[in-house]
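task queued by scheduler; priority normal; single chain, no ligands, no partner chains; default sampling; output format set to structure tokens
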Amino acid sequence: MNDRALCLLFVTILLLLPMALLAAVELTAWPDTTKSVSQKYATADTTTRNNPSALNSPKTANPSDSTWGLIEWVSEHDGLWSLLALLGGIGGALWAFGKRRRQHKPKTEIDTRDARQRYLDYLIATHQHLPVAGFETNLRVPIPLEKVFVTLQARMAELERFREDGGEGREMAPDRSVTVQEALQFALGKKYNGVVILGNPGAGKTTLAKYFLLCFATEKAKVNLNLAQKFLPILLFLREIDPQKSLLDNILSPLEKHQLNLTAAFFEPYLREGKAILLLDGLDEVPTEEKRRQVSQWIHHQAHLAFPGCPVVVTSRFSGYRGDAVLPGHYLRLEIQDYHLAQVKQFLENWLTAVETHVHEDSKHWRTRNKKPATCIAASKPRRPCANWRSTR
């Protein structure tokens, strides 16, 4: 119970207890209070007839009257006033104590719930739309990433590795292709240090990292990823990392310009308790091999060793993950595979649907009319235009 609720409780007691006490006294000490109104008026009328001068005489308090009797009884009992004074003193002291606590609350103590929601709102607003660059159109339409995302297939370069007493490992199963969701479930279930996602340019590595972020930020990880853990997502672009700074400093640095009023005191409990997931994007975008080596060591020491309970997801092109840039530790390596025809068709259909429902309305008509043009585009048959469909863009 917080200070405000406690004060309200005692104020309520202060108000109700005297009223209940006085009501009980009135009911038990003055029998005439049970008289009916008609009986009282009858008594008053008889008194007036027997003594006509009473009409002109000044009115005096009748000791038998319940109200005056109650006042006299209260004035004669000092203990009741002492009780009321005691309760008032207790209530005042509690109020002053609560006010002082609020005034002297440490600056590092923050409302975790408000800070979390503020942070998640920022993540969603920043990454919910798919960035479109490289070409100009007559109409710019925001494309929701979640609506166009198509599950990626990846080859697991390592299914499972058991650590032996000497610290070495050995391969236990052949490679196979799985969805990235299945691979993430597998890595977390087998207590890997994390996942390294490798792919060619344009394979969807950054989009995948943002998709993971949105799943956790919007609490859809259970539905979209089949993961019950409610991780706090933390996305860092490795090209912006300063290897000389700590993980917390690198997390806070890009947030300062957005004035979110977040401090290390907010992130540290999530990291320390293993309730955050680190999404580290673009190791290949670190400009030099020496810098990549430093960033790789930074990930190992600042993420894995400093907060071993937090899963780490690192993305990179193949060319950026070799030699000294390879992460030390126990990571599941995934290699993103190219889309097959059905995935290309689904992506195009999702894209066209997102555009049409944004420009027109979100109805069944605009959601279903794009199936045929998506099939045509995916099949790459420009000589056979899709009938009954015309792009308005």
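post-processing summary
- The first strand starts at residue 153 and ends at 156.
- The CA atoms of residues 108 and 123 lie 23 Å apart.
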